[in-house]
Amino acid sequence: MERLIAEICARVGDLDKEAMAQAQDRLDQLLKPPGSLGRLEELAVQLAGIMGTPRPVIRDKCVVVMAGDHGVVEEGVSAAPQEITYQILPHFVRGTSGIGVLARHAGARVLVVDVGVACPVSFPGVLVRKVRAGTGNIARGPAMSREEALRAIQVGVEVAAEEVRKGASLIATGDMGIGNTTPSSAILAAFTGLPVEETVGRGTLVNDAVLQRKREVVAQSLAVNRPDPSDPLDVLAKVGGLEIAGLVGLILGAAAHRVPVLLDGFITGAAALVAAGLCFPVRQFLIASHLSRERAHHHMLRYLGLKPLLDFDLRLGEGTGAALALPLVEASCEILNKMVTFSEAAVMSMHEDKIWRP
């Protein structure tokens, strides 16, 4: 199984520098001052490099929501009951949840994948690829075996391949799993060495007492499991989650097919940390949709070298931030493809010492 991961990682190449240079050259000739569209221009050049064309186009868009439960909820780290993971899945599919509404607004499909929900799942429209019924309690022992982590990663790789086969030109990431900010905080602490006070936030609806308990549990999980940051699979298996592992595979699989990956928030950021640990070049294929209100998310993004497109104080997960950022990603391509150059518009350019372009 580890050989499969190695093969996927070997397929993740560098960005296409020639396509990027051509995209940048066109941007500099467009009917505007050079660089005046800021991050949109940076994003357009990145997409050109990922997709291997100076004129990238986003067509079919898919938000993949990986779902799994966490044994660590036994420790009182969540204000919400674990059953909500199972109960909310049909609303994702029906389009009546947050991600359902926002993905439809952005013109994106939603695919829900059960990688490790504790209950048996048989909702129409949910892809069941369960590796096991929830993780173990990381405060008492490992979340899963190394083999189980690899199987969950394989689920994500296969989902990415199938979505690309269907025509997806962008894959957005989402998650569902009550209690999953706790393993995500543990993953961040394991990789960065930051203290739990910096890596553990409130999550959703958490008061001061529960926040303190979360910090104690994350510290305990690190002490009990001793995850090795030089071995990303070890970190994932010991203190991660099944939906996080599925997202790791999704990220790697999309990058191997040269498809951009739009990250959501804290949980998908934890998956990106593991994916980048397994395959450093995968960072180039990542786009950070937003800065989560979860306090440690900025540490994740800084570690990955990513700048968020939005800062809306979001903390829902599900892929909602990614869905909101989708139109911005598309807008960067529209600029490259539909805005005219000075020569195409028959407009005389200004001299170098003037406001506009040389």
Question: What report would you give on this structure?
Answer:
This protein is α/β, with parallel strands linked by helices and 358 residues long. It folds into 2 domains: 64 residues, 5,6-Dimethylbenzimidazole Phosphoribosyltransferase, Chain: A, domain 1 (Orthogonal Bundle), CATH 1.10.1610; 270 residues, Nicotinate-nucleotide-dimethylbenzimidazole phosphoribosyltransferase (CobT), large domain (Rossmann fold), CATH 3.40.50. It has 15 helices and 6 strands. It has a 6-stranded parallel beta sheet with strand order 3-2-1-4-5-6, sandwiched between helices. Strand 5, helix 12 and strand 6 form a beta-alpha-beta unit. It starts with a helix and ends in a 13-residue tail after the last helix. About 1% of the residues have low confidence.
Secondary structure layout:
Elements: H1 2-10, H2 17-29, H3 38-51, E1 60-68, H4 83-94, H5 98-106, E2 109-116, E3 126-128, H6 146-165, E4 168-176, H7 181-192, H8 196-199, H9 208-225, H10 232-239, H11 242-256, E5 261-263, H12 266-278, E6 286-288, H13 297-304, H14 320-338, H15 342-345
Parallel strand pairs: 1-2, 1-4, 2-3, 4-5, 5-6
Helix pairs in contact: 1-6, 1-11, 2-3, 3-14, 5-14, 6-10, 6-11, 7-9, 7-10, 7-12, 10-12, 11-12, 12-13
